Amino acid sequence: MNKDELNYDRGVKSNLLPLYLKNVSVGNVHSKFNNGLNIQIGENLIYIGRFGAPLTAFGLNIDEAKLKHLLGSVRIGDLVVNKKDKLIVYGCEIITIYYSALEGMDLKLPEIKSRVQAIVDNPLYQYLDTIAFEQCLGIDVDEKTGKYVELLLNSDKADEQVNAEIIRFFVGRGKGLTPGGDDLLIGFTLALMLFGQFQAWKKVLAVEVNSDETTMISVAYLKALLAGYVSEHFIRLAKLIDGAEPDAVAKTINEIRSFGHTSGNDTLFGFFLGLKYLVLRGTKV
Amino acid sequence: MLFTVIKKNSYQDSINLMLLTNSINTIAGITKCSIMMGTAANKDILKNGGLLTAEGEAAAPSDMIIAIDAVDEKIVDTVLAEADKFLNDLAVKKKSKGVESVTNLDAALAEMPDANVALFSIPGEYAADEIEKALDKGLHVFSFTDNIALEDEVRLKQKAHEKGLLLMGPDCGTGIISSIPLAFTNVVRPGNIGIVGASGTGIQEVTTIIDRLGGGVVHAIGTGGRDLSEEVNAITARDAILGLEHHDPTDVIVVISKPPAQKVRDEIVELLHSLSKPVVAIFLGEKPDHHEGNVYLAHTLEEAALMAVDLAKNNPVKPNYMEEIAYQVTVPLAPEKTVKGLYSGGTLAAEAGMLIAEALGLGKLGKQEGYILNANGYQVMDLGDDIYTQGKPHPMIDPEIRINKIKEYAQDVNTGVILLDCVLGYGSHPDMANALAPAIKEAIQTAKKDGRELYFVASVCGTEQDPQSYKAAIKTLQECGVLVETSNARAVRLSLKLKGIDYQEADKCVVAAPATKQALPAISEQILDLLNTKPRIINIGLTSFTDSIFAYGGKAVQYDWKPAAGGDKRLIKVLNALAKIEEIEIANNQVIERMKSSQPFLVDVVPAKSVINILNDKVLLHAGPPIEYKDMTGPGQGACIGAVLFEGWAEDEQSARQLLESGGVTFLPCHHVNAVGPMGGITSGNMPVLVVENRLDGTVGYCIMNEGIGKVLRFGAYSEEVINRLKWMRDTLGPVLSKALKRKEGGINLNVLIAKAITMGDEFHQRNIAASLCFLKEITPLITELDIDAKEKYETIKFLADTDQFFLNIMMAASKSIVDCARKVTSGTVVTTMARNGRNFGVRISGMGDEWFTAPVNTPDGLYFTGYSAEDANPDIGDSAITETVGVGGMAMVAAPGVTRFVGAGGFHDALKVSNEMDTICITNNPNWSIPTWDFKGACLGIDARKVVATGITPLINTGIAHKKEGVGQIGAGTVRAPLACFEKAIIAYAKKLGIDVE
């Protein structure tokens, strides 16, 4: 901690964070990017990003200058200690993040009023239907993928065996920090969770999407989703289902599409498949 | 046959010289060689090694002695070439690293005003005073330096404590401050564990194990091995522990100590019980059977590390941390086979000795002659002990001693296990495992051939981030047959297992801590700052210590230390005593303030006797400190003859000589009557003198006028031509200039003229052409206005225009008016006069008034006019060094780089080097005389005799060179150094005057 550092930070944190930081004391810097870093603390990841950028489900965003200072100081593997109101990062410099004073943001999945039957007429669904996702995904759209997409749309989500087959195909598929297959599964599950419980699907997902099969970051996103928390982007996306002007839909979708290399598109594609699955099912479970 | 080469004033630190010695000893044809500084202790070592000759005995502490035992004398040249290459490479390395380096503490602080730590690696015999200076400047001290007297350690630690500072050491080999490794230290991941350790390798072992377990260390504060002794009473350890208690990022505190004094140990434990944070403590040699409250007591360094990591992760402390040794022993070694420990780390050796002694019931350890343990054939040696390292590098750097011991022990049929440590990290050998490998392989093979069982067991103390690779070291050792364990304790246990002994620890429970807690004292702001920021370090000594500082984000400035006063301890003592007298600084500032505020004006030219009353008698003034005619050198005597002839006191040369030899003329230094004179400085009553008035307080300075070049009186010429010119100067030049100056109200402002000319390339001793022209520019209109004969006007202007050095004498009179004004402050150590009489160089300092301090003059080095050589040169002579006294001349060489060529002193960079060097012996710079080629820095001002004595840097004087025979005149120009001895005498006299014991 620098002498001039105030016991206060400007920023925002996910309301999932207090749950993650409860009863854990020591972690490490897991990964580091241009605009943020992940800390592994206990079994969870916490993403520290820039204040002003969309907040991640398991994240906290801090002032840009402090984030830069932090990124300049830490190396992967550096220790992080959680004290009751702060994280102390032991990098080249010791930097303290006072998280308890940060403003909390509710990233719990919103309740949706719309019924499944209304999805096809929804401007969001219609907009997604116009996107040529095949050309901008992080997974190869080949015959085999086509087969599993079909299965995803048409299988019984109460059938754990089929669920496992589908999930095993997609998990870890593709390149990057969150492989395209994982993003697709997350988007799909998000759509399902807005309209029902789908316990069997979620149960298999929790087992099959693990750090042996894919990246720790993908696991973290899925884990947050299964706990009912998503990133700020997807809260906005979910809220569009209950009605929005076409401009607002386009704006949100474009923002999501620009996220990551193909990650936004992969997730939206999954989300679209989820809605489509619900439409095909024609019922609210 | 012994050969000795002495490199005068060539200071190098001992580690570099030991490494150089090692390198030289590998040259074919060398029987033995040792390269050391000429301190008394080193001479003893050379003597014991049969390498001390008479030349070596005569060397000063600041001289480097190269002592060679070789058959062929030709090898000496090879050695010198190798030594030069080695030392040059060191300089190049430093340059390429871009390390800022300075030569004194004040300069270091100027370079880094926010410095907060001084890191010492200098010889112990000089260190106490240097450490005290650093503490007085408000710096924490990290002293890698050892061999500091216990009473000094106590005194300095008390002082540090009173000032709110930490004195880490002496003999502090290891430290981590805010994650920056200092000295011989491993690179350890930063984390929430803070360590206080009175043990170097103890800290290294604990920190590296913590790192390898995934924990991290934010601070590891070394206290020095004696801190927990009864005498030192843990002054540093207490402050460091309290500091960590108040350091928010530290969650767990580890205290490591070699066997402490019982009373101190108990007090420290009482303090630990009063902390709010969990503590792991290891007092090596103790075998604790329980923990006390929040204080967890460890038996081994490994156990301390394991407990600390658990606490740091908020895990409960386990009752037992001993894990099985995986290596399977089917048939234990025979009873007569024993374990031999060959350690480079003292604490690791102590731990090995302790564990073996406990396992075998050998009783308490008693250290003797480098053995930590020597009982029943079991031996553990600390090869870093003084008896093995005298004049040799530490075994962590140099594998030689261990290689020899491995060979020796491998021959012993009773050696069953050779136990080793391999310490990595900054400062250690770049690849110790590989260096030891051939000896290990050979030993194993020999034993195998002889049908003997011989095991090598080792542990590597290091981390993957160390400059040497931890994994690579293990691999190398394993590949040559060494059984490698993950800690020293485990390596010892494996050695015992090979003997069939299964060493076990009993479980430890936690008992309640004492109910009462002591109130904790407050901690200083400086210690909080040290622990909460990256250190800003002045590295005093080994340059390589800056490597780890820079690599891990710290700041450092390199102070290339060398012993003050050439290592003369009497003078060092005097200088240190003077440094503590604040009044000297005040007085010195008053002296230089007068110099700075001086306003010299050239107001008149008058016959000398009209202003110097004594010249109305048969008296001649001379340059320099007092001297009689008989003792004068050729130029002085020649000038006397000329003056006698000029005054008409004798008809011819012979009668003039008779008059002078008979004592018919009285002599007096110019300096005693407000005057100065160039070269011989011979001034008689009828010679016209320039009158300079210092408007600050009316002090006047006089100087005869410059006669031009060629055959002139000041160089001892007295031919008719010379006398006639003097008469013309008396009858025409003097009166004309006097009249002209009277037309200028108040006279000519010389500060303005000097300021102009210094920007035009004059330094006012060897080069005055710009000033002379500026003077001509001022005076010519005044002369042309005079109502005198046109011929007189022409002759005067022509003479001035032809005489490039005319202004030198004006400058000398101006300088005299400045120093005599400043000399009215009668305290302090500012040099107020430097003058030479051809035999002696004399100085006066402000605090000693009119008293001269003299030493034999040097002969100038320089370039000679065709037909002359150094053999013809007269020793240094003249009062013209008054210009250097006020900071110009040689001091301002950079202002006149052209002069450096003329005086044979090199080019621009050499000129710059001279002025930079002169700057280090001066108190300040003169803003009135700003030098463009020095980035407009003012000329040097206020030579401090203390600095001259401390640094051994004497003022450099630009000078003309007179022929040693009278009457010949100038034969060249060059530079000359003031002799150091006169400054030393002045300082000792002043110290005596102030009541300082100088014996």
Helical residue percent of chain B?
25-40%
**How helical, in percent, are the residues of chain A?**
40-55%
Q: Kindly state the number of beta strands of chain A.
A: 9
Number of DSSP E strands of chain B: 40
Q: What number is the mean pLDDT of chain B?
A: 93
Q: Taking strands numbered 1, 2, ... along the chain, how are they ordered across the largest sheet of chain A?
A: 8-7-6-2-3-4-5-1-9
As laid out across the biggest beta sheet of chain B, the strand order is: 4-24-23-5-6-7
Which blocks of ≥5 consecutive residues of chain B have pLDDT under 50? none
Biggest sheet descriptor of chain B = 6 strands, parallel
Oligomer type = heterodimer
Strand-residue proportion of chain A: 15-25%
The residue ranges of chain A in which pLDDT falls below 50 over 5 or more consecutive positions are 1-6
Instruction: Using the alpha-carbon principal axes, give the shape of chain B.
Output: elongated
Number of helices of chain A: 11
What is the string of SSEs of chain A from the N terminus onward?
A: EHEEEEHEEEEHHHHHHHHH
Rg calculated over all Cα atoms of chain B: 36 Å
Radius of gyration of chain A, in Å, reads 19 Å
Structural class of chain B: alpha/beta
Task: Explain briefly what this protein structure is.
Chain A has 285 residues and is of the alpha+beta class.
Key descriptive features of the protein:
heterodimer; A: 285 residues; alpha+beta; 9-stranded mixed β-sheet; 11 helices; disordered N terminus; B: 39% helix
List the helices and strands and how they pair.
The complex is a heterodimer of chains A (285) and B (999).
Chain A: E1 11-14, H1 17-21, E2 26-32, E3 37-41, E4 44-50, E5 59-62, H2 64-73, E6 79-83, E7 86-90, E8 94-97, E9 103-105, H3 123-129, H4 143-154, H5 160-170, H6 180-195, H7 199-208, H8 216-226, H9 232-240, H10 246-257, H11 263-281
Parallel strand pairs in A: 1-9, 4-5
Antiparallel strand pairs in A: 1-5, 2-3, 2-6, 3-4, 6-7, 7-8
Helix pairs in contact in A: 3-10, 4-5, 4-11, 5-7, 6-8, 6-11, 9-10, 10-11
Chain B: E1 2-7, H1 14-24, E2 30-37, H2 40-48, H3 54-58, E3 64-70, H4 75-97, E4 101-102, H5 105-111, E5 117-120, H6 124-136, E6 140-143, H7 150-162, E7 167-168, E8 174-177, E9 180-183, E10 193-198, H8 200-212, E11 217-222, H9 235-245, E12 252-257, H10 262-273, E13 279-283, E14 290-292, E15 295-297, H11 301-312, E16 338-343, H12 346-360, E17 371-375, E18 378-382, H13 386-389, H14 400-411, E19 415-423, H15 432-449, E20 455-461, H16 470-479, E21 482-485, H17 488-498, E22 509-511, H18 525-532, E23 536-540, H19 545-551, E24 555-559, H20 569-579, H21 582-597, E25 600-607, H22 608-611, E26 619-622, H23 634-647, H24 653-661, E27 666-669, E28 675-676, E29 688-694, E30 699-704, H25 720-742, E31 748-749, H26 750-759, H27 769-784, H28 790-802, H29 806-822, E32 831-837, E33 840-845, E34 853-856, E35 861-864, E36 877-878, H30 882-885, H31 897-902, H32 908-919, E37 922-931, E38 937-943, H33 945-951, E39 956-962, E40 970-977, H34 980-993
Parallel strand pairs in B: 4-24, 5-6, 5-23, 6-7, 10-11, 10-12, 12-13, 13-15, 14-22, 16-18, 16-19, 19-20, 20-21, 23-24, 26-27, 28-30
Antiparallel strand pairs in B: 1-3, 2-3, 8-9, 17-18, 25-29, 25-31, 29-30, 32-33, 32-36, 33-34, 35-40, 37-38, 39-40
Helix pairs in contact in B: 6-7, 8-11, 12-17, 14-15, 15-16, 20-34, 21-29, 23-24, 23-25, 25-27, 25-28, 26-27, 27-28, 33-34
